[in-house]
């Protein structure tokens, strides 16, 4: 599981995580939760699965909230009985994270850096608050307001056609890039696309104008 999720931005509550954990334990399974977007939430905090399940596996990274994409630095929290086997796996895959990246990551926890990161989170919130109603006004169906991450998952059924062809049309005619739903699973993927609000507000506004123009030439 992922919480906050990519591509919807939805968050599992503490109670939902507890129910999920109980259901998986009842089936002798293992719960793995991707918490890479923790910190990038809006108006709420994301609960960690470790609050309700000491046996869960948790994946996280410096790539998203801390903005260190490309440094390839992350961590895994695992139950003690799994650590030995995970160490064997790590030794055969990458041995250890680069020391330079580890030293750079220490700067993430200074008060000055945390202040910048919180300003960045607020900016993501402003971008979401602009793009969500703008796309809905154009006719995109967005069922949920993202609580975290920086994506909108939109239904294009109102426009007809296939999501892959839809994305290609806008890339080739309007030079606006978004992602077909097929990248995120199979359920209704053919008529969903994902938008990322990782650009500044001026560029997002220009993108909306181009999308509006591109819809007029789209022949689904």
TrEMBL record:
One of its GO terms (biological process) is amino acid metabolic process. It holds the Pfam family Aminotran_1_2. One of its GO terms (molecular function) is transaminase activity. Its cofactor is pyridoxal 5'-phosphate. Keywords: Aminotransferase, Pyridoxal phosphate, Transferase. InterPro entries: Aminotransferase_I/II_large, AspAT/PAT-like, NHTrfase_class1_PyrdxlP-BS, PyrdxlP-dep_Trfase, PyrdxlP-dep_Trfase_major. Residues 2-211 form the Aminotransferase class I/classII large domain. The keyword Transferase applies. Its EC number is 2.6.1.-. It is an enzyme of class 2 (transferase). PANTHER family: AMINOTRANSFERASE, ASPARTATE AMINOTRANSFERASE. Belongs to the class-I pyridoxal-phosphate-dependent aminotransferase family. This is Aminotransferase. It comes from Pseudomonas fluorescens.
């Amino acid at each position: 599981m992922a919480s906050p999720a990519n591509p919807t931005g939805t968050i599992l509550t503490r109670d939902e995580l507890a129910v999920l954990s109980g259901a998986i334990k009842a089936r002798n399974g293992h719960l793995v939760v991707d918490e890479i977007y923790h910190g990038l939430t809006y108006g709420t905090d994301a609960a960690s699965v470790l609050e309700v399940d000491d046996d869960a596996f948790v994946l996280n990274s410096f790539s998203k909230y801390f903005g260190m994409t490309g440094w390839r630095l992350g961590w895994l929290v695992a139950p003690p009985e799994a650590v030995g086997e995970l160490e064997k796996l790590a030794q055969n895959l990458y041995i250890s994270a680069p020391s330079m990246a580890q030293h750079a990551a220490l700067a993430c926890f200074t008060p000055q850096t945390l202040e910048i990161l919180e300003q960045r989170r607020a900016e993501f919130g402003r971008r979401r608050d602009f793009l969500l109603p703008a796309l809905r006004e154009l006719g995109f169906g967005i069922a949920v307001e993202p609580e975290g991450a920086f994506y909108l998952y939109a239904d294009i059924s109102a426009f007809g056609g296939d999501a892959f062809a839809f994305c290609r049309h806008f890339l080739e005619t309007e030079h606006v890039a978004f992602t077909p739903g097929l990248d995120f699973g199979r359920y209704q993927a053919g008529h969903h696309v994902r938008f990322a609000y990782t650009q500044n507000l001026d560029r997002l506004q220009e993108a909306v104008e181009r999308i509006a123009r591109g819809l007029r030439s789209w022949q689904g």
